């Protein structure tokens, strides 16, 4: 059976060396901290975590950080990073979110992962099911683009998003409120791609 995550598995070791990734995660986590009332009792899920940058940056803010990614290569990198910083207040999920069983989370964060979600409605619904009522989901991703962002790298189901359509999809699949801010750009192949941060409340 073909491994649908092989592309990510092969690139996991060098993932953080891609220009802009660490800078974006640093900015995104700062925005999450500004909007979210994170306490020492909070549970935060890093959805589509990749190498776990978002969750690791937040690991001292919360009681528990969940790292979820279906790529085994990415999860192995997460485990290595956690071992290096000697952190154990974590939960690891090497699955699609619809396949997981977990205690509900207060916050979900996701950076540049949502455009890889094949079943967008199902993914959003599954995230809502794994959250506490009143919890907030923070999504950083691309505004609609022409497909050039991933050209030559991989095929994705979403070439960014129409933000108004995406907010409606959240509202129709388990969330009571959805709003967004524009969030600067991401430099890829000498081109600036506009970003947003969507905040959805269950």
From TrEMBL:
Methyltransferase type domain boundaries: 45-136
Keywords linked to the UniProt accession: Methyltransferase, Transferase
UniProt GO molecular function: methyltransferase activity
Cross-referenced Pfam families: Methyltransf_12
Any Gene Ontology biological process: methylation
Entries under SUPFAM superfamilies matching the protein: S-adenosyl-L-methionine-dependent methyltransferases (SSF53335)
Source taxonomy: Eukaryota, Metamonada, Parabasalia, Trichomonadida, Trichomonadidae
Lineage: superkingdom: Eukaryota
InterPro entries for the chain: Methyltransf_12 (IPR013217), SAM-dependent_MTases_sf (IPR029063)
This protein's name: S-adenosylmethionine-dependent methyltransferase, putative
């Amino acid at each position: 059976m073909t491994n649908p995550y092989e592309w990510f598995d092969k690139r996991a070791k060098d993932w953080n060396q891609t220009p802009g990734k660490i800078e974006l995660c640093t900015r995104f986590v700062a925005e999450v901290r500004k909007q979210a009332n994170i306490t020492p009792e909070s549970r935060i899920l890093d959805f589509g975590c990749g190498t776990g940058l978002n969750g690791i940056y937040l690991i001292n803010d919360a009681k528990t950080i969940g790292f979820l990614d279906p790529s085994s290569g990415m999860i192995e990198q997460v485990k290595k990073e956690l071992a290096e910083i000697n952190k154990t207040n974590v939960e690891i999920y090497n699955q699609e979110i619809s396949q997981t069983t977990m205690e509900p989370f207060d916050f979900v964060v996701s950076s540049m992962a949502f455009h890889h979600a094949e079943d967008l409605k199902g993914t959003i619904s599954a995230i809502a099911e794994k959250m506490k009522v009143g919890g907030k989901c923070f999504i950083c991703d691309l505004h609609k683009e022409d497909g050039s962002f991933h050209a030559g790298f991989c095929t994705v189901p979403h070439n960014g998003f129409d933000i108004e359509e995406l907010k409606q999809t959240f509202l129709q699949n388990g969330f009571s409120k959805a709003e967004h801010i524009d969030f600067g750009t991401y430099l890829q192949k000498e081109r600036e791609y506009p970003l947003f941060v969507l905040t959805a409340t269950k």
